[in-house]
Design a protein that fits this description.
The complex is a heterodimer of chains A (about 525) and B (about 45). By secondary structure, chain A is an alpha/beta fold. Chain A has a single domain, classed as 3-Layer(aba) Sandwich (Peroxisomal Thiolase, Chain A, domain 1), CATH 3.40.47. Chain A is built from 21 helices and 13 strands. The termini of chain A are far apart. Chain B is α+β, with helices and mostly antiparallel strands and about 45 residues long. In chain B, strands 1-2 form a two-stranded parallel ribbon. Chain B is elongated. The termini of chain B are far apart. The chains are: A alpha/beta (about 525), B alpha+beta (about 45). The interface between A and B is medium-sized, with 25 and 16 residues.
Chain lengths: ~525, ~45
């Protein structure tokens, strides 16, 4: 029997100072063009926490708005704040930077993160009020250090500065003198990913109502690599985050496939549960510092706020079939194969059409498609267009080519089967995963019967292959398969006997009628 | 396509648009030299 998607969580962390100090567009610019007009103008385009909080796509990401509500709002979305936006919503929260810096230190188990004494004193109370920060987690928070120590390590010891509201409030020190895999920069990137994954896990546990000790296995699907000079991508983010989140009976591993990793991880999790290897598997991911402000130059040029100022995280719980939650149908898996080719038509055929044809289904039989969910507010000003719409157009075009819809119905198909993009451009985060929570709810509510989640990955960025990658799966309403497979019920036996008797009686009647003729 | 005849080409494809190998495929019958070809991801 298929396993089910039992719960999801979605978190964002507003990190404006990390945009300036850690985003790769900014760090590269600082290296190659340190006095650039862009770097000078950038701070004026940074949003406040309140602005990020009331931003409609961010509210949609955490479940404060539905995709339908977002699609009814006029684009671009950034000039029109959501009235009464809350930090916490159905699926998670938007955490402010100061609390996240404390969480970063909590997630450090090697004495690499140091925060100023004043900063810890002033921020501790806020984090302590967080509804999901239990005593085990808060007890990991260390006391602060003197400001002189911070300045010394940043200026003289290759440490990465931690900033809040433009002030240096801490540092991450390098974990090795010469190993480039353990520089302060890399440790910072990895700890940020870990901490935002921990936050996602805490919300998932809350949303699912589970005892965290019931989780058997965790799969991390972010895009970072942790290890040392002898095993650069050794891992294991999954187990490291599970430790802080209190998943005491879990082990785990990392899956990497660029932006397609969440879809690969979800298919793997569903397979592990269906096979009976584990009963409860969590797929989790934290966010990426490198991608902060990735399109910042175009946003500044167009006099907009820099919208890539949040880290994204999500988690999903896959369980044995409970007869209620939507199933992950492992008979409907699409995959981009080595020999598939790279044209958009070949890619979408392999991910969408091929698995459906194999199951005797059509493209129009899928109620909702979730492919690349990037927020168009971010991508359009940078010339990358509306990425979700481009994907839906290609799926619609394939439906036209297959004779399922008329050419004139193309836009209507996109309206009915697609959705706007609301995810931050955090690589793996937008790739189908943002719709999991809504898809689960829409299927439970009966609004839709099924949804196809599509992950796509740019393998060529790693310079190991020119190949593209992708994998898709279908979530569908629970068919109570487990009950049927356990055997035939007394009620069903009665029904079958009644039908047989009716048929027998009918045949007697026919024979009687025939004799009268 | 005669526009590209005998030219040296740099191809930058877009992952969510037309990837570089697909552009290369379209140009293989033309007398042009592809000196660099790469697909980039802009998201």
């Amino acid at each position: 029997m298929n396993s089910v998607l039992a719960a999801t969580s979605y978190v964002l962390v507003h990190v404006p100072d990390m945009v300036l100090h850690n985003g790769s567009t900014q760090t590269t610019e600082r290296t190659v063009n340190p006095g650039s007009a862009y770097l000078e103008a950038l701070p004026k385009h940074i949003r406040s926490y309140e602005q990020a909080l009331s931003y409609a796509p961010n509210q949609t990401y955490i479940g404060g708005l539905t995709p339908q509500q977002l699609s009814q709002r006029e684009q671009p979305w950034y000039p029109q704040p959501v009235e009464g936006a809350d930090r916490f919503a159905r699926y998670g929260e938007i955490m402010p930077q100061d609390e996240f810096l404390l969480l970063l230190q909590i997630c450090d188990v090697f004495d690499l993160v140091f925060l100023s004494r004043d900063f810890v004193t002033h921020t501790r109370a806020a984090l302590a009020q967080h509804p999901l920060m239990n005593q085990d987690i808060l007890a990991r928070l260390k006391e602060g250090v003197d400001d002189e120590q911070i300045t010394n390590f940043v200026n003289n010891e290759h440490a990465e500065g931690l900033y809040h509201k433009g002030q240096l409030v801490g540092y991450i020190k390098r974990a090795h003198d010469v190993d480039v895999n353990l520089t302060a920069h890399v440790v910072h990137e990895n700890l940020v990913s870990k901490a935002s994954s921990v936050l996602s896990l805490l919300h998932l546990i809350h949303n699912s109502g589970l005892n965290p000790e019931e989780i058997d296995y965790v799969i991390d699907c972010s895009e970072e690599a942790c290890g040392d000079m002898n095993q650069r991508g050794g891992g294991n983010f999954a187990k490291a985050a599970a430790e802080i989140a209190g998943l005491k009976n879990a082990t785990g591993s990392d899956m990497r496939a660029f932006c397609a990793a969440p879809a690969h991880a979800l298919v793997t999790a569903a397979s592990l549960v269906k096979a009976g290897t584990f009963k409860k598997v969590v797929v989790t991911s934290g966010g990426s510092t490198a991608k902060l402000g990735m399109n910042g130059k175009d946003h500044v040029k167009k006099d907009m706020p820099v919208l890539e100022d949040v880290l994204g995280g999500f988690a999903a719980l896959i369980c044995e079939n409970d007869g209620v939650n939507p199933e992950i149908d492992l008979n409907l898996i699409g995959r981009h194969m080595v020999g598939t080719g790279s044209s958009p038509q070949a890619v979408i055929t392999s991910l969408v059409l091929s698995p459906l044809e194999k199951a005797g289904m059509k493209i129009v039989d899928i109620d909702k498609f979730a492919a690349e969910m990037q927020n168009p507010d971010v991508t359009k000003p940078a010339g990358a267009g509306d990425v979700p719409q481009a994907n839906f157009k290609m799926i619609a075009a394939l439906a036209v080519k297959s004779g399922e819809i008329e050419r004139g119905e193309l836009n209507d198909f996109i309206q009915r089967h697609g959705m706007p993009g609301w995810a931050p451009t955090q690589g793996h985060i937008p790739s189908g995963a943002p719709y999991l929570g809504f898809a689960r709810q829409d299927i439970l509510d009966g609004t839709i019967n099924n949804a196809m989640i599509i992950g796509k990955g740019s393998l060529f960025l790693g310079r190991m292959t020119n190949l593209f990658d992708g994998i898709s799966f279908v979530m569908r309403a629970n068919r109570g398969q487990d009950k049927r497979e356990q055997g035939i019920s007394r009620h069903e036996v009665r029904g079958l006997i009644a039908e047989a008797l009716r048929s027998f009686a009918g045949s007697l009647g026919d024979q009687a009628g025939g004799s009268h003729a | 396509m005669s526009l590209l005849k005998d030219k040296k080409l740099i191809i930058i494809g877009d992952r969510d648009g037309i990837p570089a190998p697909a552009i290369e495929e379209c140009l293989k019958d033309i007398d042009a030299q592809v000196v660099f070809s790469s697909t980039e991801c802009f998201v």
